[in-house]
Amino acid sequence: MTKPMASDGTVGKALEVLDAVAAFERPVRFTELLEAVPFPKATLYRFLQTLTNQKMLSYDAKDGTYSMGVRLLRLAHASWRTASLAPIARPFLRQLSDTVGEAVHLAQIDNGQVIFVDKLIATDRFDTLAQIGQVAPAYCTGVGKAMLAFMAPRRLELALRQQAYLPYTPTTHRSPDSLLRELETVRRDGLAFDREEHEQGIVSIAAPVLSTNGRVIGAISIATTTARHDLNGLQAFRSVLQTTAEQIGAEATSWQFPA
């Protein structure tokens, strides 16, 4: 399920084990983890014991399974409050969601990948794949393209090399060349669209969140289904979306996201 990664000593290896447990998205048995990580049985057992003792993992003796621990939840909550744009943006996102009646996403980017840091759902008639804490590709998401378009040249070059260009749907970009052509349009219009590129039947309109000096610090999107809106219909949201992005950017100007 996971592939071996370069480890930074013992800490790096322990983090690989945490990543492996998280990747299952369910309680996982020792034998399953043994197949997922590049460690001998004794080494894996030692890491699991340590992580459990430190409450980074939780062990269910009855089922013999490991899951993410309560300490990670506390750390995640602290990160959300101090290293995420979400707390600053939440009041603006709530107002936007109430206004448009659709799903609203807030994302940031790290190592070329989109991280969804907040989400508000105004209707229970549909949902999107994006969930808080989930990582998604930048090249085939509205928020991802909105952020890529406003990156500094060197940062953009690196981010483009980190894209996989897997064809999730028939409309997904399959090369950096076609993506770059679209990014020029996004930069000119200040808006990006997801044309069912990551998830069939889901479209979105997205805008970058920029600091007052023009640095991209995130992006917001309004996502919906093709049964509710087509791409032309999403244009009706452009003004309120861009206004919300500008409000968040202004509020966050003094706040610095780790580079």
What does the secondary structure layout of this molecule look like, with pairings?
Layout: H1 9-24, E1 28-29, H2 30-36, H3 41-53, E2 57-60, E3 65-68, H4 70-82, H5 86-100, E4 103-110, E5 113-120, E6 135-137, H6 142-149, H7 153-161, H8 176-189, E7 192-195, E8 202-210, E9 216-225, H9 231-234, H10 238-251
Antiparallel strand pairs: 1-3, 2-3, 4-5, 4-9, 5-6, 7-8, 8-9
Helix pairs in contact: 1-3, 5-10, 6-8
In quaternary terms, these chains amount to: single chain
Number of helices: 10
Q: SSE order, as H and E?
A: HEHHEEHHEEEHHHEEEHH
Q: Which strands sit side by side, in order, in the main sheet?
A: 6-5-4-9-8-7
End-to-end distance = 30 Å
Highest-level CATH class of the largest domain? Alpha Beta
Rg, Cα atoms, Å = 20 Å
Task: Provide the CATH topology of the largest domain.
Answer: Beta-Lactamase
Extended strand count: 9
